[in-house]
Amino acid sequence: MLKLSILLVAVLATFVNANSITLELDVDLNGMDPNSVDPYIFENVVKDLFDKIVAQLKEKDPAMIPNIDVDVGEDSDPVRLKLNIEDLIVRGFSSVELTNIKISAIGFKLEFKVDLGVVQIVAPFYKLDGLLVIIPLYGSGTFNLRVVGAALKGNGKLNIAGPSIQDLGLEFMVNQTNLVVTGFLDNEPLSEIISLAVSECFPVFMQNYGKRLGELLAGIIQEIINGALKPKPEPEPEPQPQLPYRTHRLDFLH
Predict the structure, then answer these.
(1) CA-CA distance, 28 to 238, in Å (whole number)?
(2) Which of 168, 171, 220, 233 could link 156 by a cystine bridge, Cβ 3.0 to 4.6 Å?
(3) What is the pairing mode between strands 164-173 and 109-132?
(4) Which residues form the signal peptide (predicted)?
């Protein structure tokens, strides 16, 4: 029996107290010829795994991150940034849905699509202090970001003998964003303009560069997935306790 330990390294896991989700699936591959395995078996395995991941995500949604501190550069550097966010709330990430999974019988080519639904990120307080060459960056206030229709499309090749994923390709898509930020440069009219600009331009940016972004991240994500797919080594058997060896002296009387 080959036991696969699947580790979901989500984007939020970096911040949410380094929480991650660990699942285990038992897949019996011993004695199987990789060329004769029905790909639908693995499609069902992936679907079952995804359902288990979503079930655990629902227990963590919404997530609250008490404090985020970002400190980049020194005071004398031309580019520096200090950002503090308190009580960041992320909700809706458990609405993720695997809407398509297909593994072809020839070559085990993999295609999938994951819809993220509606995700909202709310910061009741942020403080910004930085410099971009000669442009000062500062302010404090709130921001509320709502992303609608985000999706991830992917393809690659499944190597079941490993098991591993090869030649992973990704593309990110966003249909709609709505950003409301206050307090940027302590200027509310400017904050409103920035909010509208980001809301309108970000989906277009993702439409033009979502595939390029996927290319940049595909290698990292493939390495993470393959590392998680490595079977756990079988635990070494515990040593059996040894009975104490005793010598007995026998005295014979003549």
Answers:
(1) 25
(2) 168
(3) unpaired
(4) 1-18
> In this structure, what are the phi and psi dihedrals at residue 66, rounded to the nearest 5 degrees?
-60, -40
CA distance readout (Å), 158 to 29, 165, 221, 248? 14, 5, 15, 65
Provide the CATH number for the domain around residue 109: 3.15.10
* Cβ within 8 Å of residue 99, ≥6 positions away: 113, 114, 115
**H or E segment to which residue 217 belongs:** helix 188-229
Least confident among 49-58, 67-76, 90-99, 205-214: 49-58
Q: Is position 248 within any domain? A: no
Residues spanned by the domain of 137: 62-222
Please, are residues 86 and 73 in contact by the beta-carbon 8 Å criterion?
no
Instruction: Please write down the long-range contacts of 56-59, taking CB distance under 8 Å and 24 or more positions apart.
Output: 56/21, 56/23, 57/10, 57/21, 57/93, 57/94, 57/96, 58/94
- The amino acid at 149: G
**How many beta carbons lie within 10 A of that of residue 195, not counting itself?**
19
Number of domains, the chain:
1
Separation between Cα atoms, residue 145 and residue 150, nearest integer Å: 13
Q: Is residue 4 part of a domain?
A: no
In a domain, 241, yes or no: no
pLDDT (mean) for 48-54: 81
Rounded distance, CA 190 to CA 221, Å? 37
Confidence band, pLDDT 50/70/90 cuts, at residue 244: low
Find, among 165, 192, 168, the residue nearest to 181 by Cα. 192
Flag whether 117 is in a domain.
Answer: yes
